């Protein structure tokens, strides 16, 4: 059984590693440091030799992968494109062939089940589902065969019941809701009422919405909830929040709302209401700002993890890997429409400016 451990960085378990070191201080540590360096160099040499041997053993092998998006929209498309890009890079680097097909479940559980059942029947070596419902369905489809399921962008794997399963792992884009609320108040300290726009069918939204409510309650700020499960319902809900005269709107990494962002961002901006969201892809589709995970990086890391699952097995992999976030993304066109000065964000972290695209 894999341990229920959350790793902050995708480290040794992955083909692509991130290495951080700490230095000692003081002359008395010199001898110990030298010995430690020699031991580290020896260990690194051994690990490098083992990696070379593994690459040689895998050279010429062919692997089949099914990439399954829950639906089509900017966030999931960005991740899928990054997964494909990284699978191609892995194949070239390791002298292997990786055949992959990318599917969309169109947000429908029956369609996802058909895709998963067919992928397992086709004998794929791994399935990479993107978003919570897709991951849950793929885990069920792969139960009998124990085909590795390596998911991408699950905000709360434990709440989604995707932990403690031998053949399931993946990457989490858990949201720092408190920081986004801090951004909201930094930009406008006079916020009196916040709109919470999300879908009750999205497991990704449950914890961030609860966290947002707790934050706002503590600050004595009122909030108005509107939920939706279709594009038309999202448009109606956004219009209701505008009518309720909210000062800002918050949406977590909610796939249903993301799919409709292009249909609501202009109305929110014209009403002077900044939309704070859970992912940069929302912002590229017109939302005002976010602080979160880079989904291209997440897609690359998920593909690396899937390759490890196919070539090394699942025994040494954790239940899931938490991606680092921390990048503030602002849509400059939306900021201009709002008449909003976002320079205050410069004191809160790295700010990336984007404009609206329909991809």
From TrEMBL:
Composition-biased stretches (Acidic residues): 35-55
Biased composition (Low complexity): 25-34
Pfam families per the UniProt record, alphabetical: ABC_sub_bind
Keyword Cytoplasm: no
Coiled coil region boundaries: none
Residues covered by region (Disordered): 25-55
Signal sequence segment: 1-20
Alphabetical UniProt keywords: Signal
PANTHER family (UniProt xref): ABC TRANSPORTER, SUBSTRATE-BINDING LIPOPROTEIN (PTHR35271:SF1), ABC TRANSPORTER, SUBSTRATE-BINDING LIPOPROTEIN-RELATED (PTHR35271)
Stated name of the protein: ABC transporter substrate-binding protein
Source species: Hominiventricola filiformis
